[in-house]
Amino acid sequence: MATYRAEDDYDYLFKVVLIGDSGVGKTNLLSRFTRNEFSLESKSTIGVEFATRSIHVDDKIVKAQIWDTAGQERYRAITSAYYRGAVGALLVYDVTRHLTFENLERWLKELRDHTDANIVIMFVGNKADLRHLRAVSTEDAKAFAERENTFFMETSALEAMNVENAFTEVLSQIYRVVSRKALDIGDDPTALPRGQTINIGSKDDVSAVKKVGCCSD
């Protein structure tokens, strides 16, 4: 029998953003990871929405707050608020539309302009199930990821291929960054100070260690 856990039962809260051109499948990646759902009728996101899901990393419960926004330029006014506090990002392109891959460079620049240098980034080539329509080779995407020092994975939200792996890898890498920072100042990474913000970077004001009271009955 599965053990019930309360919604607020977690050790870490990490904000992760989904960015990329409109129509690359960001919303379906989010719904597949958080609710195991996929919709062929999915429409372009208007404004911003987010969902959460908790996973285990080592012996800790990591809760992801994942933000999804429209890829259209008319929503760029939300940029600063959207990126604030993000410690991880999935930059999504459509493997059947080469222009969405080319635009990763612009999205990456915007991301790096608004976040800390330590943010964990993964390029995600979505719609990999459409093999007969592929316009971006895996090799080209891997080479680009290596040049930019980011992670890379191809996914299919439709077939649930690598969606879990992509999000889990990003969250695990964020946890490792946090642990390394604790080691740098001589702390035990398994005993990070509860109730304090995880300062991966100066712009982080969302991701945090779960606050736990000193006493309980």
Question: Which secondary structure elements does this structure contain, and how are they paired or packed?
Answer:
Layout: E1 12-19, H1 26-35, E2 48-57, E3 60-69, H2 79-83, E4 86-94, H3 98-102, H4 104-114, E5 120-126, H5 138-147, E6 151-154, H6 163-184, E7 208-209
Parallel strand pairs: 1-3, 1-4, 4-5, 5-6
Antiparallel strand pairs: 1-7, 2-3
What does this structure look like?
- With 217 residues, the protein is α/β, with parallel strands linked by helices.
- Helices cover 29% and strands 23% of the residues.
- The longest helix is centred in the last third of the chain and has 22 residues, at 163-184.
- Strands 1, 2, 3, 4, 5, 6 and 7 form a 7-stranded mixed β-sheet that branches.
- The protein has one domain: P-loop containing nucleotide triphosphate hydrolases (Rossmann fold, 3-Layer(aba) Sandwich).
- It comes from Arabis nemorensis.
- GO terms for molecular function: GTP binding; GTPase activity.
- One of its GO terms (biological process) is protein transport.
- It holds the Pfam family Ras.
